[in-house]
Structures are given as C-alpha cells and as structure tokens.
Write a structure and sequence with these properties.
alpha/beta, nine-stranded mixed beta sheet, six-stranded parallel beta sheet, globular
Length: about 350
C-alpha cells in the first residue's frame, strides 16, 4: 500500500520542531512537500530534509499531489488556508489554536463536514509523556474516582509570546492544557479564569497594548471533576507539574517536557527509539497503603501522525476529534469572558 502523502505548510519553529521529525518518523506516511517562502526557511529545510520539494503556496503544493496537509502558519492566516485545503478535498491537520473564536471554529467544522473532508486539530500534547503516564495511573483504577486535577506549565519565554489574532498564552499553552483535561475527564461545563496581562513593551515587544502572559483557569467538568490549569511565560523559572486526587489515592509528578525539549534541540525519535519520550524522574502514587514510585511511560508524538495516516486511509478515527477542538475553543472563549467579568461562565454543551 502506498504511503499517505502529506504536505507541510509553514516551516517556523512549529513546522520544523513539532511536525517535521514526527512526520518523517511515522510509518506509512511520507512528507512530499513543504510551503516555505523565505530564503532562510528554505535553506533550513534543505539542511534538514535534503531534496524535499519546496513550494510558494498551498495551491502549488496541492497541485503537486498530496493526500493531506498540515497547516502550521499563524492564526491570522490559518483559517483561510484550512478552508482552501478543505475546498480542494484534502484532509487537514490544523495547528493550535484551532481557531481564534468559536464562530470560526464552528465554521471550519461545518465546511469540513459539508465537503466530507477529514480534519483534526494538532493537539499533540495528548501524547506528552507525563500525561500518558498519568492516564495509565487513572486507567489502572488505583486512585479510584477522580476528584481534582492540577496542571501547571510555566516557561521562561517572554519574548516568544505570540501577539495578534490568536495570540497570548491562554490560546497557546491553554489550548493544550484544556485539551489534556478534556481528554482525561470529558467536556467542561463552566470555567472561571484570571489572566496575567502585561504591557507588550515590558516583555520586549515593539508594540503597545496588553498581552496575556499567563493564566489560571478553574474548570468544572460535566463529570464533576475539577481541573485547575495554569501557565505563565513571563516568569523566571520553568515548571511542569501534574497532580490528580482521587477517592482512593493521589498521583503527583514533576516533569521536564522531555519530547518538546528534545525536538526543539533538533532530536528525533529515530535517533534513539529505546530512549525517546521517557521522563527521567518517576511520579509517585500515594494510597492508604503508602507511597510508591511510578516509572515514566514511553510516548512519542509520532503516534499522532500514524493515527492520522490510518484515518486518511479510512482505517480508523482521527487522532483528536474536531468536536473536541471546537469545545476547547469554546472553553477558552468562556475563560476570556470570565477574566473580563470576574464571574464564572458557562460553556456551551459540545
């Protein structure tokens, strides 16, 4: 069976670090072209993947022949490109945030449904090693019925906070943390949120106006679980911590964001398959019987693209349902309204 032909649109840090190595690593998937316009990006691409065709536009990439495209461009241009791919009948992976607002998210979902085109958000952090380890503990039943979930993800990246449409840390890291919580505990019914609003110039940006440099979001799931999700990029100390309280036990872990760090450094799963995607420190599970260490699971974002490839062939579902993507955008919109009003805001049912 021929490999699924995938084209990559955009070769910034996302396209280069979070898509390219995993597309190249995935079985039965082939990277057949990249849209990159600047000379610097083209030079980078030639060094990374010699011989891969480079195109000036999505239209040219589609004309050259693809089964699917991965749209990694900024939110300001992503909507039009996603709709162009859908109109061409090409399956789509849309980077996060899936859309800047619920109306756009719903419109993209409807366009894909009307055209019978597969679309899935790039919520790859469902395959974060620490989350996969936690999911294993949850599925084992050792903590019993889950009650409260805490997820903290702080980065020292004040100059890297995106601005403009779809910018800010809530749209960026918030898309992932909300999606992770939804993947664990189901849809969210209501949220309350505070934003760490900073003047853009104080963060080294050449513009005026506020940027949300961080957030704390408390979500109540329809299931009754409460998730507290927090992230900040304007501090001075990185932190990645997970905690899950259940009726029968508590799981805690501090992690290094091992896959993302390796990918940004230029590594690939193919460099060390036995060692890829394993956190160096174990978590702990505490129950009435005492505390035991929980070794890290092994995970790879490659799994996302292997699942996507099978879905394009009609052999399974997409890695993340588009309904989940729309729900995450609805949650983020409710969170912004909560931050503005100081009130808890209901989230529309998925």
């Amino acid at each position: 069976m021929d490999k699924v032909r995938i084209g990559l649109v955009g070769y910034g840090i996302g396209g280069r670090a979070f898509h390219r190595p995993f597309l190249l690593d995935a079985e039965d998937v082939e990277l057949v072209g990249v849209v990159a316009r600047s000379a610097a990006k083209r030079e980078q691409l030639e060094g990374d993947v010699p011989g891969v065709p480079v195109h000036d536009s999505l239209g040219a990439l589609i004309t050259a022949g693809v089964d699917a495209v991965v749209i990694t461009t900024p939110p300001s241009t992503r909507r039009d490109l996603v709709l162009e791919a859908i109109a061409a009948g090409v399956a789509v992976v849309a980077d996060k945030p899936f859309a800047p607002d619920p109306e756009t998210a719903r419109a993209i979902r409807q366009a894909a449904a009307d055209a019978s085109v597969l679309i899935t958000p790039f919520h790859n952090r469902r395959w974060d090693t620490d989350l996969v380890t936690l999911r294993g503990v949850l599925d084992s039943g050792q903590i019993g019925t889950p009650l409260r979930f805490w997820s903290r993800f702080d980065m020292v990246e004040r100059h890297g906070i995106a601005t403009g449409i779809g910018g800010g840390v809530l749209s960026d890291i918030g898309s992932h943390l909300v999606d992770q919580a939804v993947s664990l505990f189901g849809p969210i019914a209501r949220v309350s949120c505070t934003l760490d609003l900073r003047d853009a110039r104080s963060l080294g940006r050449d513009q005026d106006g506020p940027i949300d440099a961080g957030f704390t979001l408390t979500a109540t799931h329809v299931s009754g679980v409460e998730s507290v999700l927090t992230s900040n990029k304007a501090g001075w100390l990185p932190a990645r911590r997970l905690r899950l309280d259940g009726v029968d036990g508590t799981y805690e872990a501090t992690s290094t964001d091992v896959q993302a760090q390796a990918a940004v450094a230029g590594a690939s799963p193919s460099d060390d398959r036995s060692g890829w995607g394993i956190e160096p420190s174990p978590g702990t599970l505490t129950t009435e019987s005492g505390t035991v260490e929980v070794p890290s699971a092994q995970s790879s974002y490659t799994d996302y693209y292997e699942r996507f490839g099978r879905a394009v062939r009609g052999l399974g579902s997409v890695p993340v349902p588009v309904d989940d993507a729309v729900h995450v955008v609805e949650v983020l919109d409710a969170a912004r309204r909560s931050a503005a009003s100081g009130e808890t805001v209901a989230v529309p049912a998925p």
